[in-house]
Amino acid sequence: MHASPAPFLAADSPPAGQTTQVQVMTTVAIVEDNRELRASLVAILEKARGYRCLGAFASAEEAVLEIPRCQPEVVIMDIHLPNRSGIECTRQLKELCPAIHVLILTVYEDNESIFNALKAGANGYLLKRASPAEILAGISDVKEGGSPMSAPIARKVVASFHEDSRPASPPGEQLTEREREVLDCLARGFSDKEIAGKMFVSINTIKTHLQHIYAKLHVRSRTQAVSRFRP
């Protein structure tokens, strides 16, 4: 763990007759298991005006124990941690300290990692290739209520909303005419043998049609297939 001795406020005594300009510090904690990167992030904060590092932690377990004690405004969080993930750590910290803002800083840019982190309560999501200036800007942004994201991440989030907004296909729309005929016979209570006789095909052909129907409707039984096709 690392804690910077920098003060919260600039409190140098001004000359007589002049007022003091107080600089409010943004307090930050870091959760990153890579020692070099952790030290680099601490150095970025120590060199920047207006930021104070309250602690740097190598594991989720340590972070969950110490961060509620030091109460930083912003936590820089890696996803890949030794035992519990940064996503789980984020979830726990948000439960313990709802006012804390979590800024994910990771190499992972897959949809599952992004959305799991956001669902866990992360306020922003930056990739580790972000510059020091982008990281500092991200810290300030989440503190002010924003949701900073690296450009590739933002594009994925926007694309996911576009996909979710597309109208869903009605049940059975993707079935062939023959599959619809089989499903209609199912709904009327016919057996495989009766359907085969009605359609002048073999029972094996009917079973193949049923396999395709189940796969397309994402069901596992006749009852589910009929229910899905005719809610």
Give a brief outline of the structure:
By secondary structure, the chain is of the alpha/beta class. It is 49% helix and 12% strand. It folds into 2 domains: 26-164, Rossmann fold, CATH 3.40.50; 177-229, Winged helix-like DNA-binding domain superfamily/Winged helix DNA-binding domain (Arc Repressor Mutant, subunit A, Orthogonal Bundle), CATH 1.10.10.10.
Describe this structure in words.
This protein has 231 residues and is α/β, with parallel strands linked by helices. It folds into two domains: 26-164, Rossmann fold (3-Layer(aba) Sandwich); 177-229, Winged helix-like DNA-binding domain superfamily/Winged helix DNA-binding domain (Arc Repressor Mutant, subunit A, Orthogonal Bundle), CATH 1.10.10. Helix content is 49%, strand content 12%. The chain contains ten helices and five strands. The protein has a five-stranded parallel beta sheet with strand order 2-1-3-4-5, with helices on both faces. Helix 3 (86-96) runs parallel beside helix 4 and helix 8 crosses helix 9. The radius of gyration is 28 Å and the shape is elongated.
